[in-house]
Predict the 3D structure of the following.
Amino acid sequence: MDAIRTEALTKHYPVGFWRPRAYVALDGLTLDVGQGEVFGFLGPNGAGKTTTLKLLMQLTFPTSGRAEILGRPVGDVSVKRRTGYLPENPYFYDYLSAEELLHYFASLFGYGAADRRRRVSDLLDEVGIGAERRLQLRKFSKGMLQRVGIAQAIINDPEVVFFDEPMSGLDPMGRREIRELILRLRDRGCTVFFSSHVLSDAEALCSRVAIVASGRLAATGELSEILAFKALGWEVVMGGLDDAVLESATASGHIDRATALGGRRYALHVPLSVAPDRLVAEFVSQGAELVSVNPVRETLEEFYMRKIGAVSRDRGLADVGKAPASSE
Ligand SMILES: Nc1ncnc2c1ncn2[C@@H]1O[C@H](COP(=O)(O)OP(=O)(O)O)[C@@H](O)[C@H]1O
Ligand SMILES: [Mg+2]
């Protein structure tokens, strides 16, 4: 059984007052997320990430398509107890302290007083809120509220959590702490589905990712697969290279270009079509020595831009720029 499944999930928002039209925020999203996965849902602003999470949380309803959590339709009440959700911009009654707020959420889930005290205190420790836990939330920074939101999302020890941009508003240190928290959740067997427009968040965390752009799935798979998908060539660093040898290798197309590193060292950019081991053997036989060989891969950033470029061209750029402001 999958933790999360969506099937051709589609959401149109009506826009325009006099002549309402449908704005396609999500267009036929089909995804499955296995139990215990940390799944990154990536895409630029306006891609449809929050819409997808709201559909999964039933905060809004699909135009067509369906979604399941833990093998049950998203509407199923028994699923609520087993899931947690961090909204994109968590908003809480801000005259409560962090501690009071979490006590309140814990009581909603039916935890008794002693249990509640322990849970709330452990959770606040876990998300890195210290003595501030007694302050009213209106005195909290965005980053601190984000942590309270995460604590709220996991208060019921959920099997599946949905985090909408969990790292937003956090400084690099805070981002790292949240990454570590996500990995601890995974180690406890919890499935984590999180959205982000920051690729480095996913690189350090995810077993698999989906990339959405303009409401459509642009790619899905293991990050390693997606990155390996487009190897660009090799970077071979060698020392003791003769200029004459270098020139002839360049002329014959075995090297795209060579960057001098000082001494007689060069970083050679070798095209994918050339076997780097044979090239190295050839150079070594002419008196050079090998320093390093590395594959040159497309970075996630480049992949992301290429996919988004493809999707927005496909859809007509006019559509992308005209996204209406959210009114929900
Ligand atoms: N309630 C709404 N009414 C009209 N359009 C909306 C509404 N909510 C979101 N949208 C539009 O749908 C698109 C997807 O938004 P969203 O899911 O919030 O994207 P993301 O979370 O990836 O930034 C955006 O163009 C947004 O403006
Ligand atoms: Mg969003």
Notes: The pocket of magnesium ion (ligand 2) is lined by residues 49-50, 88, 164 (CB under 6 Å).
